[in-house]
Design a protein that fits this description.
With 300 residues, the protein is of the alpha/beta class. The chain has helices spanning 40-50, 65-70, 75-83, 87-95, 113-118, 121-124, 145-155, 217-223, 234-241, 267-279, 285-296, and strands at 9-13, 34-35, 38-39, 55-60, 101-106, 129-132, 136-138, 158-164, 174-180, 186-194, 205-213, 252-256, 261-263. It is built from eleven helices and 13 strands.
Length: 300
């Protein structure tokens, strides 16, 4: 019997200005910057589809039309590829528009992740949904969404993806206080704080960009005051759900991710992500590896 997902919708906030990557992002969305030979956001869409999520909502802003064009049909390009006999690339280009039902809504003002998620409430309705951030690329060989969906089915409530980070870096993330459960690498979240000050973090468990949320988060977001950075923080809303009853959408669990993750949120991490993925490619990975060795040895 085919298993039916409790979750079919994913929200992908992509309205940010990408200021860390200026001037490259002056006219190009940060999410469309290439990671080897695909834009970063395509990795996230492919991850969602592989996990059975078939309804994707992008929360967009200004200058995001190239993102919309990327996941649309391109008849002229497809025709030219067909004429040149590049059948495989033509198939890959055409499939971009068929991967899932993709929708778009504008955020209006970039007032924080919590605000961006709240913009999706009309589309989500009264069902659990995923939130997937484009700065975090999860290696397809180490999928995390299927495990998160299992935890949702087992425990209910909301489910976060957590990752142990160096304590000196925890101030860059939302941070979770946790207690262990009987399930390996599944914890119950007892507290959440966004970007804790040095020495005030309850753990080194960072919240990274994958969430399974209950619609109970929307009424909280409706009235939530600005938090860290003067923005409406999703972490603050989830903190209010922790002690609410499961049958009303409360309770928060976390899945500890121990796989390969690529951070594209700043220039250095972005470059590391490109090299990490490129070195794994069969078509040019070995040659690239040899070039890097020669370059570092001063032979180039």
């Amino acid at each position: 019997m085919t298993k039916i997902n409790l979750v079919t919708k994913a929200v992908m906030p992509v309205a940010g200005l990408g200021t860390r990557f200026l001037p490259a992002t002056k006219a190009t969305p940060k999410e469309m910057l290439p990671v080897v030979d695909k834009p970063a956001i395509q990795y996230v869409v492919e991850e969602a589809v592989a996990a059975g999520l078939s309804d994707l909502l992008f929360i967009t802003g200004r200058n995001k039309t190239s993102l919309e064009d990327h996941f649309d049909r391109a008849p002229y390009l497809e025709q030219k590829l067909a004429e040149r006999g590049t059948t495989e690339m033509n198939r890959r280009i055409a499939e971009l528009a068929e991967m899932a039902a993709i929708h778009y809504v504008r955020q209006g003002e970039p007032l924080g992740l919590g605000h961006a998620v709240n913009v999706a409430k009309g589309h989500i309705g009264n069902e659990p949904f995923a939130v997937m951030l484009g700065d975090d690329l999860i290696d397809a060989r180490d999928p995390i969404l299927p495990k998160m969906l299992e935890v949702l089915e087992q425990f209910g409530g909301s489910v976060l993806c957590l990752m142990e980070v160096n304590p000196s870096d925890i101030h860059l993330y939302g941070c979770a206080a946790v207690v262990e459960t009987e399930v390996p690498d599944v914890v119950r979240v007892t507290g959440l704080v966004e970007k804790p000050k040095p020495g005030q973090a309850p753990s080194n468990y960072a919240v990274i960009g994958r969430y399974i949320l209950q619609p109970a988060v929307f009424p909280i977001l409706d009235t939530l005051a600005a938090g860290a950075g003067g923005e409406i923080q999703l972490t603050d809303a989830l903190a209010q759900l922790i002690d609410q009853p499961i049958d009303s959408g409360g309770g928060v669990h976390g899945v500890v991710f121990r796989g390969r993750r690529y951070d594209t949120g700043d220039k250095l991490s972005y470059l590391k992500s490109i090299f990490s993925l490129a070195l794994e490619r069969d078509d040019f990975g070995p040659e690239l590896r040899n070039w890097i060795k020669d370059h570092l040895a001063g032979e180039i």
